[in-house]
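Pipeline run #58 for the internal structure catalog. This entry was flagged by the ingest filter as a single-chain record with no existing model, so it goes straight to prediction. Upstream metadata was stripped on purpose; only the residue string is passed forward. Reviewer on rotation: M.T. Logging verbosity set to normal.
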Amino acid sequence: MTGINEEHLRSHQSLSERTGKRGMAQTLEWSAAYSVGHPSLDVEHRDLMLTVARVSEADGEHAQLRPLLCELKRKAEAHFEHESAILREIVAATSSARQSRRLVAAMGQALIEEHLAEHDLALAVLDSMIRKTLSSPSRQMSSIGDNLTHWFITHAVKHDAHLKTLFQTIEHDCPELLGKVD
């Protein structure tokens, strides 16, 4: 986990580890609150959410859990790679001719570089949860759904919510850029 701040990693620790509570996983349901305003990223977010729900529904079935967790990890990696590529394209497209002060402000709010680093942290946390669950399934099975739900919500609310402002500003100030970043 090179470059990942340990304090930041602890801030991502699981809900059950922080509260000591284990039990039924909170069901994730798509809502506009999770939308970042970019159609393909929103589709990926919904897919990640559905995969987290499928892991939660596996409910102690270790044979089902391993392939679902591997699928979730693969989808998360692909999503973070895609989202990072879009953000880098936005930076490249706007670096020479800052199209408006609002766009610059939105880019500042999105904190693109920090967001990209968050992807590395989120993947490290996911990998750690998966490893713990698969290495000691009987101990971890009861909390994996809650942990994954917390993991998804943490990233969506704390980090991706800023992207909504960025994409709304781009749509308003330079809509031609949206067609270039997918």
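catalog note: The mean pLDDT is 78.
catalog note: The chain has one domain: 37-180.
status: ready for reviewer M.T.
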